[in-house]
Design goal:
Layout (H helix, E strand, L loop, with lengths): L12 H10 L3 H14 L4 H13 L3 H12 L7 H13 L6 H10 L4 H13 L3 H12 L4 H14 L3 H12 L5 H14 L3 H10 L6 H17 L3 H14 L7 H12 L4 H10 L3 H14 L3 H13 L8 H11 L3
Helix pairs in contact: 1-2, 2-3, 3-4, 3-5, 4-5, 5-7, 6-7, 7-8, 8-9, 9-10, 10-11, 11-12, 11-13, 11-19, 12-13, 13-14, 13-15, 13-17, 14-15, 15-16, 16-17, 17-18, 18-19
């Protein structure tokens, strides 16, 4: 991201921003980013970073204020709007971000970030008619596969199981959609807690998955089997996942840590930190939830799974899968 830029002087805003990006401690990260903002109030990246860190810490009101400030900077990255919407959704109040997002969308009706932010807010608020209508706009700027995934997500979020299953079955019969439909088929099983069936489907259709997607589904299925008390099947899936790791993938480091955490050979807190550093904290929290459940701390497990669901990007995988896990460990 920064390689093309000239070296930054040690006391520059850019240097403090970069120091914040690599800081492990969120408090240190926030201090570095705030120093970058003090040195250059118009430098938008540290404001975005503060918003992201605060969201990860579940300090959503503060995150939205910081991101609102970033939106006021001329020439800001359009992605700020997406982070702003995500913070409102994670907070549990998507309508809080509607006015700001609608303002941006009216100014740039074909801008992807504005469309995407508004669509996720509509989906989170249960505005199904509006979210469905917006798919036509995405059809003009996104591949058909992405629009297919959005339509399926809406069906799943509103609980139309029959229509969702029908769309997946139809997708499996189309060459263009087959791989995405197969992945969605497994995700549906995970969201319903049918882990044994998901395990069989994964083994029978290994070639239908890219390595990174396969490893994640094996990981989640193993986690679900652990919650169901089938430790032997879970261990076998984790062994399979380790074999399917792709050393050349950018996801290799975090996926290796996720497997180690699920196996219990790496502390859950360390896994969460590694996942957070790679902007994949939702997966780290799922691992933490499984380990807590294995230690018979069901209350903590439920909190971890709920946090994973809140931080799942744009209500997609593993939003519903993590919510199901929270349901399974919820004290009766």
């Amino acid at each position: 991201e920064y390689r093309p830029r000239p070296p930054a002087p040690p006391d520059s805003a850019l240097a403090h921003y970069l120091a914040g990006r690599i800081a492990v401690d969120p408090n240190i990260a926030l201090a570095e980013h705030h120093e970058a903002i003090r040195l250059d109030p118009k430098f938008v990246w540290p404001r975005m970073a503060v918003g992201y860190v605060l969201s990860e810490e579940e300090r959503f009101d503060e995150a939205m204020r910081e991101l609102d400030g970033a939106l006021a900077i001329e020439g800001h990255d359009p992605a700020v709007l997406v982070y702003y919407a995500r913070a409102a959704i994670a907070k549990g109040n998507p309508t809080e971000a509607v006015a700001k997002v609608d303002q941006a969308l009216s100014a740039t009706p074909k801008e992807f970030a504005a469309l995407h932010a508004r669509w996720t807010l509509a989906a989170a608020a249960g505005e199904w008619v509006r979210a469905e209508a917006m798919l036509q706009s995405f059809g003009e700027i996104e591949p058909s596969i992405s629009v297919w995934e959005r339509r399926l997500a809406l069906l799943e979020l509103k609980g139309d199981d029959a229509a969702a299953d029908q769309q997946i079955e139809a997708g499996l019969k189309q060459d263009e959609l087959h791989l995405d439909a197969r992945r969605a088929q497994v995700d549906r099983l995970l969201a319903k807690g049918e882990y044994t069936v998901a395990s069989s489907l994964l083994r029978e259709n290994v070639n239908d998955f890219e390595p990174d997607a396969l490893v994640l589904r094996e990981l989640y299925t193993a986690g679900g089997l652990t919650l169901r008390g089938d430790a032997a099947a879970a261990r076998q899936l984790l062994t399979d996942a380790a074999k399917h790791l792709n050393p050349k993938s950018t996801a290799y480091y975090v996926q290796k840590a996720l497997i180690a955490g699920m196996n219990g050979t790496m502390p859950a807190e360390q896994v969460v930190q590694i996942a957070r550093d790679q902007n994949q904290s939702e997966h780290g929290w799922v691992v933490a939830g499984v380990r807590a459940a294995a230690a018979n701390d069901r209350a903590r497990a439920e909190k971890c799974f709920a946090r994973a669901a809140r931080h799942s990007p744009d209500l997609m995988f593993p939003h519903l899968e993590a919510k199901k896990m929270a349901e399974l460990v919820r004290p009766q």
